[in-house]
């Protein structure tokens, strides 16, 4: 299961609760009543997403570095530094390409669960410590499911059961046979147990497999960050869809180059030993958090039978919990790296989320209704100026407080003002008939417009085509009598003429650009978090260039929100 999908659902406290309130489980009621429980769930979800992003840094590093060790195993004169340099070169090439779009039969006794119990009964605590060294043997299969956005479930299942799992079994069985006879070669046993006649073909296959595994986690990182941006849990970054059909195939230039720098830095600074320990920690924690979140989804969303939930949770949580306890002993030996990365990312995500929530609270508290807007427009000196204005707002129930600020200071409002809200849908393209939804409000020349778009739609709001589409939709709305009485269709003609006149006079796009005014009554925590949010907001991408609005037609209205 892709932890990005689970975290996105569970991080949003509203989306985790089913809309049908007739039969709510005790767990749903508990989350509804307890803000502490919701915040703990939010923290776990954010930690899971940050761990997966950390996995996206460590997987390319450890995978490519392990594959490149084959050169050193073959040629004794090759130094460790040269292997790391070659690995860095391969990683740089891999990231630069992102913008283009994702022996003996007795050995089989190892498949028997009996030997698991026998191993621990013989080794005790030492066996538990050694368990941390086996976690990397399952990471190849774990990375497959990072590609859920690129392939369907059936294809991944078939690849796992008929290709990946048999390959893992044969590979590890072969290495085990070799290490039984050559126990001192445990550091590079993979390449030493390969026969000389097939050494280089296997080396090429191993390198390609490392690149594929790296690609999976890089793509997963892009997907998770994209989902976080959509949910407003991460600062805005540029997201490019590399496929018109698959929503999960995305690419982010900023994220790509940051990942590239971090991957190369991890290889050159920490080396293979520390990276392996860090990788084991992050993979085991990602799997454990995935199990916890999936259990919540099974209970709250899917309404799965309690017996099946208990069976799933007891088996996987116990197994993964043992692995986590074992690899945590590696924290002083490089296992701290994913925690450091995750804490930095979690702090960024929480800071952005905190600031966005405070802004939304202010806007909902200070929003204005049509009656208030009517009073503002009736004040002496306020005029309705010629032209067509698209006034962008995120609030669908009410009007943004930026509007009050604008009218009070500019002492004017365009004769035709369309309050426009953008809604992103998880579909490639929105049906043209459903893309623009308009309705007339109770004030003269004031309308509301909802623009729905998918990830493959070209959102260009600055062209004449868009303006024509909106005005035509408004004209059809008026002519159908949705904005006036059905018995008075002729009275709609002046309104249509007014729309055409406003369109011919001028077209302007107005969007609020808000910042926090941090007053002295703010607590130290609020002051610190809001200042940090302002730093993130000031360095994140603006939403305006993505709208395709030409700068001469765009007006930003600045306003301070008092915290």
TrEMBL record:
Keywords: Ion transport, Membrane, Potassium, Potassium transport, Transmembrane, Transmembrane helix, Transport
CC annotations in GO: plasma membrane
A Pfam family recorded for this sequence: K_trans
One function term, GO molecular function aspect: potassium ion transmembrane transporter activity
Keyword Cell division: no
InterPro entries listed in its UniProt record: K+_transporter (IPR003855), K_trans_C (IPR053952), K_trans_N (IPR053951)
Chain segments annotated as transmembrane: 40-65, 77-97, 127-146, 158-178, 198-218, 255-271, 277-300, 307-324, 336-354
Predominant location category: membrane
Bilayer topology annotation: Multi-pass membrane protein
Domain K+ potassium transporter C-terminal residues, every copy: 386-561
UniProt-annotated location(s): Cell membrane
Residues in K+ potassium transporter integral membrane domain copies: 104-371
Similarity comment: Belongs to the HAK/KUP transporter (TC 2.A.72.3) family.
Protein's name according to its UniProt entry: Potassium transporter
Organism: Rubroshorea leprosula
